Amino acid sequence: MVLEQLESPDPDAFVEAAKTAFRNGAMLTVEAECEVEYEGRTSGYLGPGERILVAKPDGTFLVHQPTGHKPVNWMPGGGSVSARVSEGEAVLLARRSNPTERVEARIHECYGLTRFDATDGATYEESGTEAEMHEYIAENPDVLEEGLRIVEHERETKYGFIDFYAVDGDGTPVVVEVKRIQATLNHFDQLQRYVSLYEETNDDVRGMLVAPSASERVKRALRDNGLEFVGLSEFGLDAKGSTEAKLTDF
Amino acid sequence: MVLEQLESPDPDAFVEAAKTAFRNGAMLTVEAECEVEYEGRTSGYLGPGERILVAKPDGTFLVHQPTGHKPVNWMPGGGSVSARVSEGEAVLLARRSNPTERVEARIHECYGLTRFDATDGATYEESGTEAEMHEYIAENPDVLEEGLRIVEHERETKYGFIDFYAVDGDGTPVVVEVKRIQATLNHFDQLQRYVSLYEETNDDVRGMLVAPSASERVKRALRDNGLEFVGLSEFGLDAKGSTEAKLTDF
Question: Where would I find the Endonuclease NucS N-terminal PH-like domain in this sequence (chains A, B) (predicted)?
Answer without folding.
Answer: 27-120
